[in-house]
TrEMBL record, chains A, B:
Signal peptide: none annotated. GO terms for molecular function: N-acetylglucosamine kinase activity. This is N-acetyl-D-glucosamine kinase. PANTHER family: N-ACETYL-D-GLUCOSAMINE KINASE. Residues 27-339 form the ATPase BadF/BadG/BcrA/BcrD type domain. InterPro entries: ATPase_BadF, ATPase_NBD, Euk-type_GlcNAc_Kinase. Its EC number is 2.7.1.59. Belongs to the eukaryotic-type N-acetylglucosamine kinase family. It is an enzyme of class 2 (transferase). It comes from the Eukaryota.
Amino acid sequence: MSKYENGELVQNIEGGREINGFGGVILGVDGGATSTVCVCLPLFSDPASLPDPLPVLGRAVAGCSNHNSVGEAAARDTLEQVIDEALTKAGSTRDAVRAVCLAVSGVNHPKDQERVLTWIRKMFTGHVKMHVYNDAVAALASGTMGKLHGCVLISGTGSISYGFTQDGQEARAGGGGPVLGDWGSGYGIAAQALTAVLRAQDGRGPKTMLTDSILRALGLSSSDELIGWTYADPAWARIAALVPVVVSCAEAGDETANKILMEAVEELAVCVKTVVRRLHLCGEDRTSPFPVVLVGGVLEANNKWDIAKEIINRIRREYPGAYPIRPKVEPAIGAALLAWYLLAREPLEGNGCTRWQISSQESTV
Amino acid sequence: MSKYENGELVQNIEGGREINGFGGVILGVDGGATSTVCVCLPLFSDPASLPDPLPVLGRAVAGCSNHNSVGEAAARDTLEQVIDEALTKAGSTRDAVRAVCLAVSGVNHPKDQERVLTWIRKMFTGHVKMHVYNDAVAALASGTMGKLHGCVLISGTGSISYGFTQDGQEARAGGGGPVLGDWGSGYGIAAQALTAVLRAQDGRGPKTMLTDSILRALGLSSSDELIGWTYADPAWARIAALVPVVVSCAEAGDETANKILMEAVEELAVCVKTVVRRLHLCGEDRTSPFPVVLVGGVLEANNKWDIAKEIINRIRREYPGAYPIRPKVEPAIGAALLAWYLLAREPLEGNGCTRWQISSQESTV
């Protein structure tokens, strides 16, 4: 049994093998465009009352595991490494794992899912329940504490909107990455800002505050150096890191920067509205409440120019039932809770999990 | 002396070392986004009357030499290899070279120019006149037969507009590559088409003929596979190769494809008009004639949907003196003619070229 003092976990007993009277641990992996996080949680007994704070037995961080970005071998190695490290930190082993949910960016097709499943099957025995999703699903679950319902909007380096209905239908919009029109993403915003600097320099576009601000941020002496800087390193996150500069310029009244952010708002709102429309998340009368989980650096509300607020306003004009959720836990925990949630819903089978039975009643968001 | 029979070069004597009574050869290199071409020409005596056809002593082709795309080492090796191969084919040697013009994509800044110059200086003695430009300059010279005047518009895998005045001022617009808003390029057109397929699939955009046409062209069975296909290989030219599919769909009346092409026309016309305005190529009354050299697969006039014609129409609405030139020689020959042209304009110096003197009078286009 884990022991808490003043709400803090002070002791794990046997790495999750005897927590809350249930054996084993669950793993959640969030593989984003820049890093991969794995958390190891104990199995919980009661779906309606999760401990607060959640007892994270182990947590590990590694590099990017998007196979589109780093290649298959590197992605597989990163996933294996981060899982083993989280288990070690939890004082646990692969044998103790009951369920794992990998939510990895770059998983866009059943073939991608199957590929990641193949990698992970080699790590665990057949008794482990394995789920592979796009990383957007972990983000949604981090807002709904494991339940797949509603819509998530992510805008970090990349952007995507993903939604699920109570009865398991799903839909996504966006998430095509830099080549395929991800204009509301951090990458998209920053690339448009860099383009605006180039256009201002060569005379195609108006002068903009972005020029001085971006050159200063990058330590460059002239716009001529921008093309060289851009292609010197193809990492998407390096471009996306310029978003705060764009927001600052917009807050200072720069028209070009404002226009770029407004276009990003429009793109992202369209992504969410498309998912809502396709899944009828708003109900027949278009006013039913549904959560919109907001995740990613672009949607953080620490700026005067609040991109997330503008997006929600646009969505609510069409679907007034949309209510924003800013997750209190990280996406990797969302993935772990989802793994647990899916395990808890399963009918009791002779699948090695016979020691425990959890109600399939759904937890409320 | 070269010998011609029925207009065909049948014999070079001593690899250019004794042609038209002048010693040595000139090299022109066109380093585009997909391949690098080097040609070796003899020195010509009379700037006003170039032989027709031009006596190409040697020609070699190699891969991409854009350091932004393939890295510095590979770019340098490619340039060295293609130059030596052209000289060998011409039966000539590095010692016979009097001038070389390298026009290479990715040269966007004096630093880029200096880097390429450093590579090439190691190949030749100090007597060789060396010039490094963006590859757009070779394209311009291929339309003007070596003279730097007017404007060139290139749209192949990438796009750029470049212009020169008679007195040596220059300006460029566009040419930022895929990340920096090169929307009129083959890459830009194709990336927007792929994006349109994704938007049609996830419900953000209208259905389009592009979906079936692109999936068929790529041998994919569903739009779900597009993201994986896109990032499986980062080569820009692979994306750009889809332009003919977009043109076919536009010709068949697809609105989305038509819109993409019209936006490309607008982007490219703006590039040219910006250069014309900055250099006052149109004269005081905005009606002076100036050439617009059109180069690249996107601007080829073999389609019903004639992108180049639409662009020229837009330019002429503002600058009626703009007249299109479709080069009769390839850009590498343009680069060689430019090397020759710059050499011919030089005042006679004690620079090892004392055997010959060419009038600095400019040739007419």
